[in-house]
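Good morning N.,

You mentioned wanting to compare the apo and holo forms, so I went ahead and generated the holo version with 5-O-phosphono-beta-D-ribofuranosylamine. This is what I fed in:
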Amino acid sequence: MKQIVILISGRGSNMQAIVEARIAGAQIAAVISNRPDAAGLAWAKAQGIATLALDHKQYVSREDFDAAMQAAIDAFQPDLVVLAGFMRILTPAFTRHYAGRMLNIHPSLLPAFPGLHTHQRAIEAGCKLAGCTVHFVTAELDHGPIAAQAAVPVLDSDTPESLAARVVQEEHRIYPAVVAAFVAGKLQINGLRVQIQD
Ligand code: GRF
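and this is what came out, ligand included:
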């Protein structure tokens, strides 16, 4: 069984999609949040999954917080760390430690629109397509080998909220699929490119 630790900060709908996918050969070892009041934490606990809150505000520096997080994660000896709406900028030491075994989902078609407010920025830029990206995490924010992307149309009537609702449906589809491919040993990283074997 491959052990997976999922990190969240809020609602946790991507975490929920991955849990509910019941991926063969994978066990969700724990769900960890940097916000004790994250709604997703309560949901995971109700499923009988080990949960942990590490409040980043209790740490003096980003390095201290990431070191504590790393120790908490590694206690579960994960094969894969999944960032699912985990809203923290990570230190290089943390990303190096999990190189090749930490995934993130970002609500844009990277490399367009790294960072926050992606849907508003896509609408303002006049994009006709928006979407989401699952990528391996590197030290550079929202920039790492891309495992999967999905695109949706941007409609004239869209608000950031309506576009986000369309994109998140695709997030829930591609994120469990990429995690399943990782668990099955089917992902191969070559530079910034990721091949998925049949
Ligand atoms: C998702 O859109 C994700 O791509 C972004 O934050 C949102 C988190 O949603 N990073 P959820 O917590 O998974 O519901």
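The radius of gyration is 16 Å.

Happy to go through it together on a call whenever suits you.

Best,
F.
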